[in-house]
Amino acid sequence: SDPDLVARAAAAKAALGDRVFVLGHHYQRDEVIQFADVTGDSFKLARDAAARPEAPYIVFCGVHFMAESADILTGDDQRVILPDLAAGCSMADMATFDQVEECWDVLTDLGIADRVVPVTYMNSSADIKAFVGRRDGVVCTSSNAERALGWAFERGEQVLFLPDQHLGRNTAVLEMGLSLEDCVVYNPHRPNGGLTDEQLRGAKMILWKGHCSVHGRFSKASVDEVRERVPGVNVLVHPECRHEVVTAADLVGSTEYIIKALDAAEPGSSWAIGTELNLVKRLAAAHPDKNVMFLDKTVCFCSTMNRIDLPHLVWTLEALVRGEVPNQITVDPETARHAKAALDRMLALP
Ligand code: 13P
Ligand code: SF4
């Protein structure tokens, strides 16, 4: 990266000292990650967001729903800043508040809403988390989805899982012992979700029709291809990948799990990784003694994660030095209160 920008970011960060706390998701660019005080997957960053209550500014290098969660989980006197407001998440955008309310109305009219526990993936807007919080549901991330589903099935007979159908299905089938037939997909663009009343009544898992535009692109063909090309390769993928990809892989886990698996891997071993490219490149560089490769070369970076780049970080930090607060992310208090209930239930999972 541009040495002049690196020097400017370093100078601005030094000038701010303890007044700024920089969080970086594992999918961020190296040029940004080098300035993070804490790096992590979305669970770790949610847990650590409140770790520096004395810092008035939290610069969140990640995407919008993560910055919202940080605002919800931190004190009123801390301001959360997203260096580029266009850093959203296409998966989170696949479930709007109105669509989820409409779905709940369908379940209510069917007389089954009382036995459905809503669970939302972290990758959802604050108002979806608040919706779930109001109905005594829970947030989950890719590192605790199994525990969150276990919690939900102790409280209800059915789960409405938002918005990632793949994480929901993979967790239900691979971790909870449910079958594919126990899962239906609710399409918010179709009347009744495109399902019959019987299907909605009979399903243990009502999966929202959402997916990650990055992980959803890995295919079973790419797993077969790498196994043929690289004998003995270990295929390690994120649970946002499609079910057929996850079942064809050797290991599945969140970004934090993927990092630990590589740390523990034998020198000389080969690894094909199905997750975001910035992380895979960083892992390959960190493990020169292992053969680390990207599972499918046709899959690209997460375009919204990549919007946070060094120029945006420099612009943000220099504005803070001048006493300006750009791109603050705020969640209104009523939404925050209910979303926090659902987030707190996740943070309290055993
Ligand atoms: P984790 O951080 O939970 O691994 O999720 C990956 C992701 O897609 C974040 O946007
Ligand atoms: Fe959203 Fe997927 Fe990008 Fe994560 S990797 S921010 S889920 S689009």
UniProtKB/TrEMBL annotation:
<dbReference type="InterPro" id="IPR003473">
    <property type="entry name" value="NadA"/>
</dbReference>
<feature type="binding site">
    <location>
        <position position="142"/>
    </location>
    <ligand>
        <name>iminosuccinate</name>
    </ligand>
</feature>
<dbReference type="InterPro" id="IPR036094">
    <property type="entry name" value="NadA_sf"/>
</dbReference>
<feature type="binding site">
    <location>
        <position position="302"/>
    </location>
    <ligand>
        <name>[4Fe-4S] cluster</name>
    </ligand>
</feature>
<keyword id="KW-0963">Cytoplasm</keyword>
<dbReference type="Pfam" id="PF02445">
    <property type="entry name" value="NadA"/>
</dbReference>
<feature type="binding site">
    <location>
        <position position="89"/>
    </location>
    <ligand>
        <name>[4Fe-4S] cluster</name>
    </ligand>
</feature>
<feature type="binding site">
    <location>
        <begin position="238"/>
        <end position="240"/>
    </location>
    <ligand>
        <name>iminosuccinate</name>
    </ligand>
</feature>
<keyword id="KW-0662">Pyridine nucleotide biosynthesis</keyword>
<feature type="binding site">
    <location>
        <begin position="121"/>
        <end position="123"/>
    </location>
    <ligand>
        <name>iminosuccinate</name>
    </ligand>
</feature>
<dbReference type="InterPro" id="IPR023515">
    <property type="entry name" value="Quinolinate_synth_A_type3"/>
</dbReference>
<protein>
    <recommendedName>
        <fullName>Quinolinate synthase</fullName>
        <ecNumber>2.5.1.72</ecNumber>
    </recommendedName>
</protein>
<feature type="binding site">
    <location>
        <position position="25"/>
    </location>
    <ligand>
        <name>iminosuccinate</name>
    </ligand>
</feature>
<comment type="similarity">
    <text>Belongs to the quinolinate synthase family. Type 3 subfamily.</text>
</comment>
<keyword id="KW-0479">Metal-binding</keyword>
<comment type="function">
    <text>Catalyzes the condensation of iminoaspartate with dihydroxyacetone phosphate to form quinolinate.</text>
</comment>
<feature type="binding site">
    <location>
        <position position="212"/>
    </location>
    <ligand>
        <name>[4Fe-4S] cluster</name>
    </ligand>
</feature>
<keyword id="KW-0408">Iron</keyword>
<feature type="binding site">
    <location>
        <position position="255"/>
    </location>
    <ligand>
        <name>iminosuccinate</name>
    </ligand>
</feature>
<feature type="binding site">
    <location>
        <position position="42"/>
    </location>
    <ligand>
        <name>iminosuccinate</name>
    </ligand>
</feature>
<keyword id="KW-0004">4Fe-4S</keyword>
<keyword id="KW-0808">Transferase</keyword>
<keyword id="KW-0411">Iron-sulfur</keyword>
<comment type="pathway">
    <text>Cofactor biosynthesis; NAD(+) biosynthesis; quinolinate from iminoaspartate: step 1/1.</text>
</comment>
